[in-house]
User: Which sequence fits this backbone?
């Protein structure tokens, strides 16, 4: 029944699984009492969330003065964190949408968690522009609707406003896409549940019965949402890059920003997926579904996007020299050798140099190395945004107003706090929903199960045919 | 029919078009201004365009192979044949290099030492924009590309002859995978460097960090479009019978997707420059919007609006008519895109040079610079004829390379996947 699969492709589901095994393995974490490891991590995450709530409260009570921003450096950790989180929020929809369009079967192992990660990361990102307003309760001013505020009207010429639309649209489509995938899986959980849980999952699964018509519509809807999400993935980070690139600030105003931000976002998003999935597969015992094959594929994407980002960094440096424009030249001189040189080193070494170890297959398939690298990349991508924002602002046109910026405990607390928010949501997700898409794994079992495909099977078959002759 | 035979009639037709191309180039040369600006810009335009398509074909093979793509392998010989044009492409570009040293043309403003001495911006760029870099950049970078082409092609042919499939662990394919993966970053860095030299430096003062990626995307779409048209033709001739509507569907998706990607890059570059409104940058688009309005908008219509609507529907990607139409528009559209990248800057340079050559008519020359001129503000018949000549030359090389190997790579590990390729939800 299965389609033709090349003998050099490695299996994507190991352990000789049957359809029933898949249901058992993936549903059971939602059905058992939480393990101590889960409880401990959850407490830690909630503590982070508490820190976040406290720091937001402090910021609002004391005012933005509790941050170390000054008239020269008007954007610091806040916007760095915002861009960092939005970037992370990219891989989820990328894995799901673009890899679905490209028919990449390995997406099935990680798409669910990646999409969840997207949604939580975008939620974290959305916090920062809001708290940066200082008067959080006036946050609704960002929506353009008929009002009595007279000239206090949103500025449609500003990319900051485009961000509002881009990110809310992206969030909505990502959520729909994620939920669409969850519906058949919630039904599977429902069919195994009793009592209140059964009622809950019955509600969540929208009365899914698994009829042919349901599947047909589900497939069409997934494809349409994937088609919509693909340009959205690009648009969100493009518009985030416009926040900088539409200005006339040397170091910000450069045309390569849109595609290079998108590449960087995919890069950091995949790194975050690796960080999360390497732990999740171990804790929930999902090594048969998130195999070394998956990890290797993601490492290849990390290597590719890391190198693309590297091409962009060097292009920027080169063109700054080539432009013959002294302010542009100074901005980049300052970036590399100025007071924030250490963040440039951090960015270059974590984003461009260190992923090059993934040219070696052994290292791509090494779980420990991958984990350390994924943390490196996340640090590097945070530094990239810091380099772009703080380094550039610190040395503006007027040397008399040059400045240096270090965050206060509140700003650091806010960043760590969003990690808590993110962690809390992700931990809840691992309890409530199947972290691997059951239905999608089943759909690739015949083309990806280790009892059906792979070099081993091919070699065995070849041996059998020779014997028969 | 697994072996392509280059029919005498095909040869005659292609040679006929090549003669037409040469004739057009000759006529252009005879009727040109004292610097033969129209001749040289046409020559550069087509050389860069077709050489770039050849390079992109190798890039496509490399990217698809690295991504473990299986569906395309029964058409990979066509891309191998496309890349073989890099060798004549290098020869074509060498003529531009010779012209640079011999002062036969005034294509590049920076090649004029007197001008550079007077101009602090160009003097600042002289470390990169100089004849040595142009020469060695062209030879070394294209040399590396050709080297990779030779390696990948040799292995691909060896796999056909000696490959033992699973028994030798697909030895050749694994080697191809290493070469193609290594080619990707090299192609990424080197194509940018060469695009800055060949194309961006025509507007010697202007710069844009996105320019290399934009130009690369233009090459990519043109290469896809030409692939689709050639495959439709060859299939009509009875070759490539294992290619089905499903393969064309996927090629159509690439044409569609990358047309949008090209538009995305076009928009990013244009919008950021328009928005910031810095004179040094806007001058590039100002020149094109004021003096080349037809081409400026036709570029977007042909390369975005038409393929977008033509290829939006799934079933259109599975029909030869709409696919051929869309490819034709897009191919010509990207040829125009390169026209628009190359002509204005080179013309400006030539005008200034003329201005110096006969100072008395300075005002007149400046006046001509903004006036409508066949062959500059819009392609004339001579440009079309030249393009057809280059296209015929390209196809001659491609078809000639196709004769040298079986069309289907029998021992490729993915040949089974490619033969049984299906695009959901079509199961015909």
Assistant:
């Amino acid at each position: 029944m299965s389609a033709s699969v090349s003998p050099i492709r490695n299996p994507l589901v190991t352990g000789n699984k049957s359809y029933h095994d898949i249901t058992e393995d993936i549903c059971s974490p939602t059905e058992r009492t939480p393990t101590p490891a889960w409880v401990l991590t959850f407490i830690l995450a909630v503590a982070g969330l508490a820190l976040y709530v406290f720091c937001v409260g402090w910021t609002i009570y004391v005012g933005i003065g509790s941050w170390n921003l000054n008239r020269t450096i008007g954007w610091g950790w806040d916007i760095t964190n915002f861009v960092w989180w939005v970037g992370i929020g990219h891989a989820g929809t990328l894995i799901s949408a673009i890899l679905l369009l490209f028919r990449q079967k390995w997406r099935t192992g990680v798409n669910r968690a990646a999409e969840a990660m997207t949604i939580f990361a975008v939620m974290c990102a959305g916090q920062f522009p809001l708290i940066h307003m200082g008067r959080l309760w006036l946050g609704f001013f960002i929506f353009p609707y008929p009002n009595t505020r007279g000239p206090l009207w949103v500025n449609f010429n500003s990319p900051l406003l485009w961000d509002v639309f881009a990110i809310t649209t992206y969030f909505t489509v990502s959520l729909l896409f994620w939920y669409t995938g969850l519906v058949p899986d919630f039904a599977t959980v429902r069919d195994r549940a009793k009592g209140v849980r059964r009622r809950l999952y019955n509600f969540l699964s929208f009365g899914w019965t698994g009829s042919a018509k349901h599947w047909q519509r589900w497939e069409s809807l997934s494809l349409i949402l994937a088609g919509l999400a693909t340009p959205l993935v690009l648009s969100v980070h493009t518009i985030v890059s416009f926040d900088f690139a539409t200005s006339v600030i040397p170091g910000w105003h450069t045309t390569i920003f849109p595609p290079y931000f998108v590449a960087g976002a995919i890069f950091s998003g995949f790194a975050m997926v690796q960080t999360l999935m390497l732990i999740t597969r171990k804790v929930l015992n999902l090594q048969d579904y998130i195999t070394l094959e998956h990890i290797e594929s993601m490492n290849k994407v990390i290597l590719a996007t890391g190198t693309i980002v590297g091409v962009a960094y060097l292009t920027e440096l080169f063109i700054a020299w080539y432009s013959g424009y002294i302010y542009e030249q100074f901005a980049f001189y300052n970036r590399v050798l100025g007071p924030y040189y250490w963040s440039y080193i951090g960015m270059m070494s974590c984003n461009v140099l260190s992923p090059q170890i993934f040219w070696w297959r052994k290292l791509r398939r090494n779980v420990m190395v991958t984990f350390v690298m994924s943390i490196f990349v996340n640090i590097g991508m945070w530094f990239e945004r810091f380099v772009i924002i703080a380094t550039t602002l610190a040395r503006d046109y007027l040397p008399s107003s040059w400045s240096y910026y270090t965050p206060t405990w509140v700003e650091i607390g806010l960043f760590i706090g969003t990690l808590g928010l993110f962690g809390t949501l992700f931990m809840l997700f691992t309890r409530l929903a199947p972290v691997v898409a059951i239905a999608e794994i089943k759909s690739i079992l015949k083309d990806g199960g280790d009892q059906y495909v792979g070099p081993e099977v091919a070699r065995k078959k070849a041996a059998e045919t020779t014997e028969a002759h | 029919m697994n072996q392509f035979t280059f029919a005498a009639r095909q040869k005659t037709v292609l040679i006929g078009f090549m003669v037409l191309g040469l004739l057009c180039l000759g006529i252009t040369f005879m009727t040109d201004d004292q610097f033969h600006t129209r001749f040289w810009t046409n020559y550069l335009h087509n050389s860069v365009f077709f050489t770039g398509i050849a390079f992109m074909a190798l890039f496509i093979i490399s990217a698809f192979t690295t991504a473990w793509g299986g569906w395309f392998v029964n058409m990979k010989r066509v891309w191998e044949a496309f890349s073989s044009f890099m060798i004549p492409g290098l020869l074509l570009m060498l003529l531009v290099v010779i012209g640079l040293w011999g002062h036969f043309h005034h294509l590049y403003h920076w090649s004029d030492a007197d001008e550079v001495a007077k101009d602090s911006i160009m003097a600042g760029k002289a470390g990169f924009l100089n004849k040595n870099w142009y020469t060695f950049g062209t030879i070394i970078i294209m040399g590396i590309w050709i080297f990779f082409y030779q390696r990948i092609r040799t292995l691909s042919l060896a796999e056909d002859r000696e490959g033992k499939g699973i028994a030798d662990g697909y030895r050749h394919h694994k080697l191809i995978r290493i070469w193609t993966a290594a080619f990707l970053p090299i192609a990424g860095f080197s194509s940018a460097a060469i695009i800055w030299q060949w194309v961006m430096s025509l507007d010697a003062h202007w710069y844009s960090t996105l320019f290399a990626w934009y130009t690369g995307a233009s090459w990519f779409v043109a290469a896809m479009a030409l692939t689709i048209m050639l495959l439709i033709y060859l299939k009509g001739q009875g070759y490539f019978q294992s290619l089905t509507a499903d393969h064309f569907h996927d090629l159509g998706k690439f044409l569609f997707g990358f047309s949008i990607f090209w538009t995305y890059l076009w928009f990013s570059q244009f919008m950021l420059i328009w928005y910031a409104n810095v004179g040094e940058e806007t001058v590039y688009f100002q020149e094109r919007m004021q003096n080349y309005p037809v081409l400026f908008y036709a570029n977007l219509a042909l390369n975005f609006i038409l393929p977008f609507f033509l290829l939006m529907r799934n079933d259109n990607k599975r029909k030869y008519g709409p696919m051929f139409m869309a490819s034709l528009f897009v191919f010509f559209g990207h040829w125009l895109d390169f026209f628009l990248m190359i002509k204005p800057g080179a013309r400006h340079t030539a005008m200034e040079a003329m201005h110096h050559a006969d100072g008395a008519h300075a005002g007149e020359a400046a006046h001509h610079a903004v006036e409508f001129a066949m062959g500059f503000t819009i392609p004339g018949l001579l440009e079309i004829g030249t393009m057809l000549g280059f296209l015929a030359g390209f196809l001659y090389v491609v078809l000639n390379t196709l004769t040298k190997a079986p069309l289907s790579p029998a021992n490729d590990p993915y040949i089974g996947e490619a033969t049984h390729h299906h695009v959901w939800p079509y199961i015909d």
User: Anything to note?
Assistant: The two ends of chain A are 25 Å apart (CA to CA).
